[in-house]
Amino acid sequence: MAAHEPALDELIEALRSLPGVGQKSAQRMAYHLLQHDRAAAPRLAAALTGALGRIGHCARCHTFTERTLCTVCEDPARDPRLLCVVETPADQAAVERSGSFRGLYFVLLGRLSPLDGVGVGQIGAQALLDRAGDGVVQEVILATSFTAEGDVTAHALGEALKARGLQVTRLARGVPAGSELEYVDLSTLAHAFVSRR
Amino acid sequence: MAAHEPALDELIEALRSLPGVGQKSAQRMAYHLLQHDRAAAPRLAAALTGALGRIGHCARCHTFTERTLCTVCEDPARDPRLLCVVETPADQAAVERSGSFRGLYFVLLGRLSPLDGVGVGQIGAQALLDRAGDGVVQEVILATSFTAEGDVTAHALGEALKARGLQVTRLARGVPAGSELEYVDLSTLAHAFVSRR
Question: Which residues pair with B169 in a beta bridge?
Answer without folding.
Answer: B141
